[in-house]
């Protein structure tokens, strides 16, 4: 809200409200909210430069919180049913892979081999069966033996590589697809 906007008292609730800054021609706006899924407050400022000076002397400025980035969503390529019927399966898959934009870079802190180990331990913490834990370690070992780090695995998005190297299909798919979720969790904790 702009400091020049007039305030009014709502007859229904008795709450004092200010006019939106757009009505008085000021481009400034301020929004404060709470994101339940991140359990964080955020402050969003639109155009902090007023087109006029302050109406009163300003108090010392406080540090403002940065706005959280919007939730990240993986791009999903659109595939028409007609194009799938007309083309062989491999050429349809190749055309959708070429049209999809590359995934955004992940910010994974620390050493890459240590992050690979930590990711594997995180995956193991979601299963109780010792055989499945061994399969996650096998996927980690295959990645390490071939020099892959988590970001490369995420960009390739190829569970078939792990399946061909002896990892069970479900574990290979989980190992490849959960990297982004783990990276977001690490980012929230740091």
Characterise this structure.
- This protein is of the alpha+beta class.
- The chain has 2 domains: 70 residues, no CATH class; 78 residues.
- The chain contains 8 helices and 4 strands, in the order E-E-E-E-H-H-H-H-H-H-H-H.
- The chain has a two-stranded antiparallel ribbon. The chain has a two-stranded antiparallel sheet with strand order 3-4.
- A hairpin with a 4-residue loop joins strand 3 and strand 4.
- Helix 3 runs antiparallel to helix 4.
- 13% of the residues are buried.
- The mean pLDDT is 74.
- It comes from Aspergillus ellipticus CBS 707.79.
- This is FAR1 domain-containing protein.
Supply the key terms.
alpha+beta; two-stranded antiparallel sheet; 8 helices; 4 strands; 11% strand; elongated
Secondary-structure map:
Blueprint: E1 7-9, E2 16-18, E3 29-35, E4 40-46, H1 81-86, H2 89-99, H3 112-124, H4 130-145, H5 150-156, H6 159-164, H7 169-177, H8 179-189
Organism: Aspergillus ellipticus CBS 707.79
Protein name: FAR1 domain-containing protein
Biased composition (Low complexity): 85-99
- What order do the SSEs take from the amino end to the carboxyl end, as H and E? EEEEHHHHHHHH
Largest sheet: 2 strands, antiparallel
Query: What does the radius of gyration come to?
Result: 25 Å
Q: What's the total count of β strands?
A: 4
SS field, number of helical segments: 8
Please give the share of residues in helix.
Answer: 40-55%
Strand order of the largest sheet: 1-2
Terminal Cα span: 32 Å
Strand content: 5-15%
Which oligomerization state do the chains in this entry correspond to? single chain
* Total separate domains: 2
Structural class: alpha+beta
The averaged pLDDT comes out at 74
| Low-pLDDT residue intervals, each spanning 5 or more residues | none
Which shape, going by the Cα principal axes? elongated
């Amino acid at each position: 809200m702009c400091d020049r906007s007039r305030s009014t008292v709502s007859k229904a609730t008795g709450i004092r409200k200010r006019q939106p800054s757009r009505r008085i021609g000021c481009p400034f706006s301020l929004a404060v909210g709470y994101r339940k899924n991140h359990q964080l407050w955020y402050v969003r400022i639109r155009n902090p430069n007023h087109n006029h000076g302050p109406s009163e002397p300003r108090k010392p400025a406080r540090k403002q919180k940065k706005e959280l980035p919007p939730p990240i969503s993986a791009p999903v390529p659109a595939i028409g049913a007609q194009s799938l019927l007309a083309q062989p399966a491999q050429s349809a898959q190749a055309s959708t892979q070429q049209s999809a934009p590359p995934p955004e870079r992940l910010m994974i802190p620390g050493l890459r081999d240590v992050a690979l180990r930590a990711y594997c331990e995180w995956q193991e913490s979601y299963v109780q069966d010792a055989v499945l834990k061994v399969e996650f370690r096998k996927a980690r070992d295959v990645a390490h033996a071939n020099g892959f780090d988590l970001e490369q695995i995420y960009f390739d998005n190829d569970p078939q590589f792990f399946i061909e190297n002896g990892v069970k299909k479900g574990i290979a798919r989980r190992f490849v697809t959960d990297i982004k979720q783990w990276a977001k969790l690490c980012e929230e904790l740091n």
